Structure formats: C-alpha cells, structure tokens
Here is the input.
Amino acid sequence: MTYGKLRLGVNIDHVATVRNARGGAVPDPVRAALLAEQAGADGITAHLREDRRHIVDADIDGLMAQLKAPLNFEMAATAEMQSIALRHQPHAVCIVPEKREERTTEGGLDVAGHESQLASYIRPLADAGCRVSLFIAADQQQVAAAARIGAPVIELHAGAYADAWAQERWDVRDSELARITDTAAYATTLGLEVHVGHGLTYDSVGPVAALPQVMELNIGHFLIGEAIFRGLGPAIAEMRRLMDAARA
Ligand code: PXP
Here is the structure.
C-alpha cells in the first residue's frame, strides 16, 4: 500500500484565545489562518466549543468565506454543532469529546460505548459531503468501533505521547509511540485514514510524522506559542520542514 503526502493542519484556536483575553477584534484568527495557508498549512483546524471560549461563530463564518485551504471543523457531538456544521458544510468535521471544566480536549471519544448514537449523528454530516473524523485514544477497540459506524477517518490523541516528551519520561514516550504505531497500522487494515494530533511540538513531531500510515497532523498550541518568537509563518515552515525530514 502506498500512502500520500503527510498533511499539516494548523489549529488557530489560540489566536482566538489571545483575542478573547481582551474581548476585542485582534489578533484575528482568520488573518492567522490566511497566513498559515501561505506558510504551507494544508488545512486549517478550528474548534467551536460549546462555551465559545476561543473560536466564536463569526470566526467560522470568516474562515468559510475567506479560506482557500480546507477547513477542519472540530466539534462536540451536540445538536447545535451538527446544525452549524450542516449550514457551513466544511471540508471536514472532527468529532471530539468536550467537557466544560477541561482546559483542552483531554481524552478521546468513546465510540465503542456510543456506537449507535454516533452512527446516526455522523450520517447527515457525511451525507452533506463532510469528511468525518473521530478523535479517539490509540485503542484498537475504539478504532474497530469507528470502522463499524462508517467513519472514514480517525484522529489519534497524541496527548500522552506529547506529555511524556515534555516530562522527559522516555519509557512512557516509547510505549505511547508504540501504541500509536500499532493502532495506526491496525486502522489502515480496516480501511481507515489515520490522523494524529494534540500537544505536538518540534521535539515530538518527528517520530509520528515518520509513520507511513499517518496522513495528517493537526497542531495548534505549540505553533501559536512559537509564533511569538519567530512569527507564525516561520514557525509553521519549521514544523513543515521537520515533518518532511522525518517522512523522508
Ligand atoms: N486535534 C484535535 C482533535 C484537538 O482537539 C486539538 C486541540 O484542540 C488538536 C488536534 C491540536 O492540539 P494542540 O493545540 O495541542 O496542538
């Protein structure tokens, strides 16, 4: 089996976090998305959370109107988000679990525990032409459930792997990488496209980018932070370079 080019999805949520800290209009996440496009992002990811703590509805309107790159709309499996997604019909939707009290998306979706609800939830989105992805832990049971309900794409939660890098816990890092590797290989045997995201940095991206089954990485927080020091374009270009080097 041959796999295509590894894509980089740039998540611009935290441009909105900085904007919302003052409640005004700047920095504008749509402007950041357009710059990310120019800097080599293959797509833009934005998570409209139920509490609108970063991205707000008007940002999605702006992204849909102005982006040339595909938008990956991250959303919780709620009726409100489904109707917003159906109104905009973005290129892709990524269904994530969402808890109000969490700082970021802490775990994967329990697809195995909610198969029939999720199957009926994603059907209208797929029928509308959105590429549906499910954000799950690197766990074969969840992968098998995703395949059974007909999701074409899974995104594996890299949080534990990324945390192990940050904490310099190399044994955990290696076991988490092995889990992602094995799960990605298993998912492709079921015909699923595999993405990986959450917490990735310049240090941690290489081993994941090197996995031939992985087709897309979604990276946000680190890039927006790094943009303070290098500028957003150069921060993204360096991530792209590291991904390409690992892939080669
Ligand atoms: N992928 C998914 C599904 C996410 O929920 C997030 C965080 O919003 C990311 C990728 C990006 O994670 P980070 O901002 O830590 O790079």
Q: What stands out?
A: The chain has eleven helices and eight strands. Residues 7-247 form a domain with the TIM Barrel fold (CATH 3.20.20.70). The beta strands are 7-11, 43-47, 71-75, 92-95, 131-136, 153-157, 193-197, 214-219.
